[in-house]
Amino acid sequence: MNQDFLPILGTDHIEFYVGNAKQTALFYQHCMGFELVAYAGPETGVRDRASYVLTQGKIRFVLTTSLQPNTPIAQHVAKHGDGVKVLALWVEDADKSFRETVARGAAPASAPETLKDNFGEVVVSSIHTYGDTWHTFVERKNYTGAFLPGYQPVKTSWKPESIGLKYVDHCVGNVELGKMNHWVEFYEKVMGFNLLITFDDKDISTEYSALMSKVVSNGNGYIKFPINEPAAGKKKSQIEEYLDFYKGAGVQHIAIATDDIIHTVSELRRRGVEFLRVPDVYYDDVLDRVGHINEDIQALKKLNILIDRDEEGYLLQIFTKPIQDRPTLFFEIIERNGARSFGKGNFKALFEAIELEQGLRGNL
Ligand code: FE2
Question: What per-residue confidence (pLDDT) applies to 4?
């Protein structure tokens, strides 16, 4: 067993570098039901940036913006647009996580550092993964504060109600042509993850485009990272479109779990969040494919929620349109009823829906 060197307790947080964190925070609060819990910026003694910490269920998002033009944060946003900088992993020992992964070939991004305030201490360290994305290891067993030392708790005058988002189910990376196996190997060798599933271009192709995907997972299965690369097709694939606009590899989508997708998606739609649309004919024969489900099919059709089944159960899922102007990052909302897979039965319908949007953008 080579996975014991990196025990992971879960996703600690996801940090986005954005052009305007204040307004982005309002999007997550108003449209997605997150609660603003902590802040760091000039008012707290941080001079070069502002960061907003938002939570819902077990999910913690950090939105960071630069206050100056030539910082690494500003450069990241200039190059990539708004996007994910850090997929942070909650670990028992951030120093050991750093040493073990660097010894196995990880490129160090930030050496272990102990941060302290009145609420205790947190140890953080970071390594590079695909593109300009980092994995930060966070050890917080001796900490009781709102987020990290340096952040102050926020009390807002109103608290948005949760819309049922529970935890991060998986985070997908898009990497350059020919690089998928390189990054799968990185997760296997450097982080002790296991290859869970392989999808080839026969699983994932439409008239126009194709992609390849492999899913890696850590020992306890809490962390799942599918890695996509473009495959040759008649026209530009959605992965190439992403790479063109993100200017390289990066996080394509974050899947968030809910226990009641009908409620969650109804709320998201009511608040103006836009989703990819599959044609209504999808619902004509979907129950022949997936068998009995507990939900009312008409309700799913009305919300355009997709259904798939594997040996262990079924799942319901839906994908937002990109959440920024560049056609890069989007969200998936997923409700698992036993199924542990990723909705392979929906790939074709879904990618046709994506290509429709690509066509509208003139990128097909
Ligand atoms: Fe997904």
Answer: 76
- The alpha carbon of 299 and the centre of ligand 1 are apart by a number of angstroms equal to 22
Q: Provide the residue count of the chain.
A: 364
Token look-up 């056609």 returns 327
CA of 234 to the centre of ligand 1 (A): 24
Domain check: are 95 and 194 in the same one?
no
CA 332 to ligand 1 center in whole angstroms: 6
Question: Do 266 and 286 reside in the same domain of the chain?
Answer: yes
Same domain, 146 and 198: no
345 pLDDT band, cuts 50/70/90, is: confident
Task: Average the pLDDT over 218-243 and give the result.
Answer: 90
Confidence of residue 206 (pLDDT cuts 50, 70, 90): confident
CA distance 252 to 171: 8
For residues 43 and 22, the answer to whether their CB atoms sit within 8 Å is no
Q: Give the model's confidence band at 236: pLDDT under 50 very low, under 70 low, under 90 confident, else very high.
A: confident
CA of 83 to the centre of ligand 1 (A): 17
Q: Residues 35-50, buried b or exposed e (16+ Cβ, 10 A)?
A: bbbbbbbeeeeeeebb
Ligand 1 mean position, distance from CA 73 (Å): 27
Ligand 1 centre to CA of 62 (Å) is 21
Does 178 lie in the same domain as 123? no
For residue 152, the CA-to-ligand 1 centroid distance in Å is: 33
List the single range of 9-23, 112-126, 131-145, 347-361 with lowest mean pLDDT: 347-361
Distance between CA atoms of residues 232 and 245, nearest Å? 19
Mean pLDDT for the stretch of residues 270-289: 93
Q: Which residue has the tokens 């004919």?
A: 281
Say how many Å lie between the CA of residue 227 and the centre of ligand 1.
10
Q: Is 66 part of any domain? A: yes
In this predicted structure, the answer to whether residue 2 has a pLDDT above a threshold of 80 is no
Residue 63 lies inside a defined structural domain of this protein: yes
Residue 348 CA, ligand 1 centroid: distance in Å: 14
From the CA of 305, how far away is ligand 1's center (Å)?
A: 14
